[in-house]
Design a protein that fits this description.
The complex is a heterodimer of chains A (227) and B (227). Chain A is 17% helix and 24% strand. Chain A is an alpha/beta fold and 227 residues long. Chain A has one domain: Glutaconate Coenzyme A-transferase (3-Layer(aba) Sandwich). In chain A, helix 2 runs parallel beside helix 3. Classes of the chains: A alpha/beta (227), B alpha/beta (227).
Amino acid sequence: MSGGLAFERLGRDAMASRLARDIPEGAYVNLGIGLPTRVADFLPPDREVILHSENGLLGMGPAPIPGEEDPDLINAGKQPVTLLTGGAFFHHGDSFAMMRGGHIDICVLGAFQVSVHGDLANWHTGAPGAIPAVGGAMDLAIGAKRTFVMMDLLTRDGTSKLVESCTYPVTGLACVSRIYTDHAVFEVGPEGAAVVEMVDGLTLEALQELTGVPLCLAGSAMNGARA
Amino acid sequence: MVDKSVATVEEAVGGIGDGASVMISGFGTAGMPDRLVDALIARGASDLTIVSNNAGNGETGLAALIKAGRVRKVVCSFPRQADSHHFDTRYRAGEIELELVPQGNLAARIQAAGAGLGAIFTPTGYGTLLAEGKETRVIDGRSYVLEYPIAADFALIKAHQADRWGNLVYRKAARNFGPIMAMAARTAIVEVEEIVPLGSIDPEAVVTPGVFVQRVVATSSSLAAAA
């Protein structure tokens, strides 16, 4: 709630479902560890979308039925998965060539912070004593043709994760194009942040107050699409 | 007659001495050559520099090597995980050095070593903490970081099948770093489930050609066949 407005934030499944709508037929997609993994459950069944996993899979399928797990068939989060008919295995050099070489259409990542210009921070809080681990985060951030972030707009204490510039160590610069949050969908880039759509009952002014960053309505939103 | 098969894992890890650099295949436990690592622990080599994607999972493989106090330095992308307690303990105690490398850069640097390249320019990591102090260059409008090859004295690799020439096929996502590590190590040592007669691996299906492999050892049975 903000400024007395009545609106309901999207739950995680609703966010995943909303994002899945923007993944077109035939797309090669990498879903990051954590929240983005959930998008797979909401891909429309009438679309053929090919999932890439950094550890050497294309055509990754859902979790196996209990008892059919194979320790040699896992995803980037090291959980058991399956391979769809038509899927392929390959080594790490090829897997990251697919990513870095721009062959993957969409990558969906979680984030600590995203700047209005599309800088991403999602690998390290910089907290003293934390053991740093980066994995494929930096390659995924800059490699795909489009990088989407899926995150709650605010931290638990109400601080905006959409920021003017990242205060956490960055994962990549100017790499994010869209942010799907529980409050709104944003486009970010050289021109700054634009609101593509908001949950019912929320206003641009209220959103601006919550985030503390300059926002405008995206062209599609001003045309009355979904804002 | 060319015969790269050896009878025992003890023989397979022969020559690995104190201070050696050793690549270890695997993504988590998939593709981790547990039997070779166990043999290396039994052999007693210490002060090792290990190149691997993770820094050990649970109690086996690389985790056991770290627990045994044999590792001076780890070059990896994702050390910190729910089950990386042996690494965490030694790292926090200042007993182990960490070089953190983004996963795709790790793969590319290993490939560069195997391919005889002097260095690579990679977009991954540009503008981040992990590129601090490194040379950069703008090529065709995109920013890149200069990164050097990662070679090793030895690689310990798990594959599915080998023949006596050292041709390899892998199993599912356990392939991961195996093929590129075989190329980048002066001595590539491979544990396989079975050694099959020469000619029984389809030449079109060979993943690692035998030129990159120096020793193979069968671990699951006595199917070693020197056909």
